[in-house]
Amino acid sequence: MRRRTRNRTGPVTPDLLERASTGSIPDIILLADSVQDGKCTVKALDVAFKFLHPDELVPDVERNRRNFRDPIDRAMNCMAILDSACQQSDSDPSLKTALIDHLIENVDGMCCWIRFLLLFPDVLPAWKHDVLGSHNRNAAVLCTILYMQDRVYDAYISSTECIDLALRLWFREDENQELLFDTKNRSLPLMMYALISREAGLHALVNRIVEKRLVGQLASSIIRRAQRVSEAPSLAVEPTPVLSYMRTLTSMISFLMDCDNEDIMKGFAKVHYLRELCTSLNTLSITIQKHHKQLLHMVYPPLHDLFTRTLKARTHVVDIWVDLVEGGVVPLFARLLPSVQRRADIPPPLPALSITTLAHGAMTHRRVIQRHLEMYPSGDVPGLKRCHSELTAHWKRCWEMATCFTRFPHSGEKIVMFCDNPACTAGEALPSDERSKKCDACCSVVYCSTVCQEEDWKNFHSRECRQARHNHADRRKLRTWYSHADRQFHMHWVAGMVTGLESQHGEGAFMIPDSDASPSDVMIEFDCSKGEATTPLYDLRLVSPEDLWVRREYTTFNSQEYLKPRWESMVQQYTEALARPERRLASLILRFGAHGVIEVVVKLVRVGDAYQPVSSIARHGYDSEIDSLPPVNPEDLPVAQHEDWL
């Protein structure tokens, strides 16, 4: 909204430059109009930056209401000259060099003037309807600056003025308290993407967000925009810009989660960002399927971005799996996978890996299973329609294997009824109305009675408690504690699997080829941490407790080394009683966050026709071999020119 005093433009003459450099507003306006269409020069740029320094800024609108118009008019027209220079700089090396030098020398001036210009719709009645346009234009300017050159980017992300300006643009709401939103002009999300797409900018923004306690506001702003994207009326008519907007939002989430900042992770998990974003993707995909089915494959990359975040999570590990299932990730995959089966930009292994991780990773945890069964009470999921036979078969096979967890009875599992004292004789005979009691100091072990607690304190726990307390506190803070209710569920699951294997295959289920080991000599391992489950067998006569502790080549359990004496005692007690055929030792290994695994070793005893768990030890491990799914085509992320990269 610049005041125009001339109806035609002319050449950029030395006389015009001289008059404009004196601050003549009509001549600055004429200069701004004249430098369009490839006519911008270095001298014109010098004039523009002369009036974009902080000392030209009117400090207080209220106190200078009468005489603040001239500096504003100069600045607005100088910004127009700057915009022309940015557009023409790629074809004029000398202009680009001068532009870069000016931008680096005048970081605070640029940020202060942009921030000041954003006030006009609030204080000038004639401009009150230009809030969205003003913020879009200035976000586009900042985005262009950040993409100009590495030195420019480094200078601006090092300035708190720039970071605060970006946050002001991003958090601005309209008169209805709705965040500014425009699917056709995506300057706001692209500006934020430009800022955080590099590590230095990401850390600068995250540090400022944490310092100003805006983590929750940032998370909710992304969620609110995603909801508006999914409900945008233009989605049915012109879907490509809307889909591109959603991909930009999910890419922002990816970068923010990759920064590995605990405040960011906890803040986003607190507002259930995965559940809300997955719900928005479901809504969006339904509209796309109805009106533009041929574009349905374009919804898969945002889903994949979110899905890979669950694998990299170091905090709220089970919580985010629950959120993903509550958000409808299963029907979303079922809807999208047929559309991506022959896409050259989506490698075939990615959908297959996603299915495997969902069915064999998430569906092994009790709370995730509970949410899943609320949607699919039988545990069965919808099949893939009109999909490639190999992917359809893989989907079916993965979910059939997942049913061994999803259909396993787990009612009442919140009532913990087992004892961690190895010498306990009560076993499963605890009264039905009594629950186990935790150690008050560390909460890491449970007992059926005070007698068992005192006995275990003497034998083991007095040497464990202090370290266990610190370990428990750290994991509680990050919500990565493996609960006793989950352990009880997995103990009974292991017992059920061993019972089922013996019922189906007899003692042959535990026979090692070319070995004379009896079933009671063998420890069976149910490894569900790396996709499809495997069941290696270990001859306990040949493997020492020490070797069992470190048997996984790529896994370490350093954070819980204090459990080693208890572990060795458990294995040793079992091997000393190998002559008792009614006993079994089994292990279950599950995926648990970024490179994380949970191992539960369970001692079983046969009661009637079924095995029952007697005791168990659970430990957290780090597996360097487990990695996350790769992103989809990172080179296709949004570019500075605001093109529809999709």
Tally of helical segments: 26
Shape: elongated
| Rg calc | 32 Å
Mean pLDDT: 85
Q: What distance lies between the first and last C-alpha atoms, to the nearest angstrom?
A: 32 Å
In total, the number of strands is 8
Quick one: biggest sheet? Answer: 6 strands, mixed
Coarse structural class: alpha+beta
Topology:
Layout: H1 14-21, H2 25-34, H3 42-50, H4 69-88, H5 93-105, H6 107-117, H7 120-123, H8 131-146, H9 150-157, H10 160-171, H11 187-196, H12 199-211, H13 215-230, H14 239-258, H15 262-270, H16 273-291, H17 300-312, H18 317-326, H19 329-340, H20 349-360, H21 366-375, H22 389-406, E1 437-438, E2 446-447, H23 450-478, H24 484-505, E3 522-527, E4 537-539, H25 545-549, E5 555-556, H26 564-576, E6 583-591, E7 596-607, E8 610-623
Parallel strand pairs: 3-6
Antiparallel strand pairs: 1-2, 3-4, 5-8, 6-7, 7-8
What does this structure look like?
The strands form 2 sheets. The chain has a 6-stranded mixed sheet with strand order 4-3-6-7-8-5. A two-stranded antiparallel ribbon has the order 1-2. Helix 8 packs parallel to helix 11. The chain has helices at residues 14-21, 25-34, 42-50, 69-88, 93-105, 107-117, 120-123, 131-146, 150-157, 160-171, 187-196, 199-211, 215-230, 239-258, 262-270, 273-291, 300-312, 317-326, 329-340, 349-360, 366-375, 389-406, 450-478, 484-505, 545-549, 564-576, and strands at residues 437-438, 446-447, 522-527, 537-539, 555-556, 583-591, 596-607, 610-623. Among the domains are: 213-407; 480-623, no CATH class. The chain is 53% helix and 8% strand. Residues 1-7 and 632-646 have low confidence and may be disordered. The longest helix is centred in the last third of the chain and has 29 residues, at 450-478. The chain has 26 helices and 8 strands. It is α+β, with helices and mostly antiparallel strands and 646 residues long.
